[in-house]
Design goal:
Largest sheet: none
Order of helices and strands: HHHHHHHHHH
Number of strands: 0
Distance between the termini: 42 Å
Helix content: 55-70%
Mean pLDDT: 89
Strand content: under 5%
């Protein structure tokens, strides 16, 4: 098992926040796959058992990180990851955290993640409009998660034609085989 350990002199609040973020991601890592090794649906990941040792280590790191005089982007990213490890997600609060993160780190990838949270918070049209705007970002061209996200959210919103087109764009991108297999399964649901 991998652990993040900070040595004496390295243990700044920002580094503690990064260590907490690291452990929160590792806590959910195995939950992404089912027993057959296939990627799980988002709702299944939330209900899966997370690695308790990594959650414990994240908790220790985050308590140390909160000794900061000012919050860094790592603090906010760790808070968002921590919210994703909760039994139920408070999407309105997650959107607020993404808003704060965008003030420190206004990147297209953070806007993409925020759009998902906005959609889950019930502001579907706003989220889909933001995804359309992100298509113009050079840094996201060829990035499979943008059309994958568009496909999934359009599918959930009942926009089957837009979902099909987005799945086609996503499948034209490079991605690992398990992700491609997952997308093919999801696309089949969009054609029903």
């Amino acid at each position: 098992m991998v652990y993040c350990v900070l040595e004496a002199g390295q243990a700044t609040p920002e580094r503690w926040a990064l260590a907490g973020l690291f452990h929160l991601h590792l806590a959910r890592f195995d939950a992404r796959l089912d027993a057959a090794g296939q990627l799980r649906e988002f709702a299944q990941i939330q209900g899966a058992a997370y690695d308790q040792e990594h959650l414990r280590r994240a908790d220790v790191a985050l308590r140390e990180a909160m000794r900061a005089e000012a919050l860094s982007a790592w603090h906010i990213e760790a808070a968002i990851a921590n919210a994703h490890c909760a039994a139920t997600r408070d999407w309105v609060h997650i959107v607020a955290m993404y808003d704060a993160l965008l003030q420190l780190k206004p990147t297209p990838l953070i806007r993409l993640n925020r759009a998902v949270a906005v959609f889950r918070a019930g502001r579907r049209e706003e989220a889909l409009a933001e995804l359309d705007l992100l298509e113009k970002e050079k840094s996201l061209r060829g990035y499979s998660l943008l059309p994958t996200t568009q496909a999934r959210l359009h599918q959930e919103a009942g926009n089957q034609e837009q979902a099909k087109r987005a799945y086609q764009r996503a499948l034209s991108c490079m991605m690992p085989a398990p992700a491609r297999e997952f997308l093919l399964r999801r696309r089949e649901g969009a054609t029903d």
